[in-house]
Design a protein that fits this description.
Blueprint (H helix, E strand, L loop, with lengths): L2 E10 L4 E11 L14 E3 L6 E5 L8 E7 L4 E7 L4 E5 L5 E9 L2 E9 L1
Antiparallel strand pairs: 1-2, 3-4, 4-7, 5-6, 5-8, 8-9
C-alpha cells in the first residue's frame, strides 16, 4: 500500500462538539529492504535444551562480561570471561525465551535464544 490515510476524532461533552482532531498519515511504497549482517554474539544450536555454544565478537583481547537474561530482563547468570572467542554453556533453566548479553570494550551485543 502507498498513499494517504485520514482519520477524524470528535471530542464532545455530551451536548456540543468541543474539538475535532484530524490525522493524516502518508505511506510511501517500499521497494526494497537492505539486509544487514549482525556482527554480535552468535548462539548455536538455537533453539537448544540449555546446552549451547556461543561465539563472542572480537573484544580486542580484553575481558568481557556475559549475562543471561530472561524475557522480563532479570539476570539469571553473570560472569567475566577472557581469552578465546568461542565458549560452551550448559545452563539449567526452564523452557523459554532468553537473551545472551556480552559487554566488552565499551560495546554491547545481545542475542535471543530459546530453550525447549
Amino acid at each position: 500500500f502507498s498513499g494517504t490515510l485520514s482519520a477524524s476524532i470528535q471530542v464532545t461533552d455530551g451536548e456540543r462538539t468541543s474539538n475535532v482532531y484530524r490525522l493524516e498519515v502518508t505511506v510511501d511504497l517500499i521497494t526494497a529492504v537492505e539486509e544487514t549482517r549482525s556482527v554480535g554474539v552468535e548462539v548455536y544450536p538455537n533453539p537448544n535444551r540449555g546446552k549451547f555454544k556461543f561465539i563472542l565478537p572480537d573484544s580486542g583481547g580484553g575481558d568481557a562480561t556475559v549475562r543471561i537474561l530472561d524475557s522480563t530482563g532479570s539476570v539469571l547468570y553473570e560472569g567475566e570471561i577472557s581469552g578465546t572467542l568461542a565458549r560452551e554453556a550448559d545452563v539449567q533453566i526452564p523452557a523459554g525465551v532468553y537473551f545472551l548479553e556480552v559487554m566488552s570494550a565499551g560495546s554491547r551485543s545481545v542475542r535471543k535464544f530459546i530453550v525447549h
